Amino acid sequence: MGKGDIKSRKGKVHRGTFGANRPRRKQNKLARKLKLKLEKA
Q1: Residue pair 19/10 in contact by the 8 Å Cβ criterion
Q2: Residue 25 sits in which domain range?
Q3: C-alpha span between 17 and 11 (Å, rounded)
Q4: How many C-beta neighbours within 10 Å does residue 30 have?
Q5: How far is CA 38 from CA 18, 31, 35, in A?
Q6: Is residue 1 part of a domain?
Q7: Which residue from 17, 28, 33, 41 lies 20 to 30 Å from 6 (Cα-Cα)?
Q8: Separation of alpha carbons 20 and 34, rounded Å
Q9: Domain annotation covers residue 2
């Protein structure tokens, strides 16, 4: 259970991937609205 283990959190951090053990951070509503406005402009 270390860096080589794909299913562990440490392995996910090492590979830079996401999954059940390391979910992505969710944006708050204000940041999401701002991003959408910037993309449209």
Answers
A1: no
A2: 9-40
A3: 9
A4: 8
A5: 26, 11, 5
A6: no
A7: 28
A8: 28
A9: no
In single-letter form, the type of residue at position 18 comes to: F
pLDDT tens profile 1-41: 788 898 899 999 999 999 888 888 887 888 888 888 888 76
CB 30 within 8 A of CB 22: no
Residue 25 belongs to some domain of the structure: yes
**pTM attached to this predicted model:** 0.52
Query: Per the structure, how many domains does the chain have?
Result: 1
Give dist(CA 29, CA 23) in Å, integer.
18
Residue 19 in domain: yes
Positive or negative, the CA dihedral 23, 25, 29, 35 is: negative
Measured in residues, the chain has a length of 41
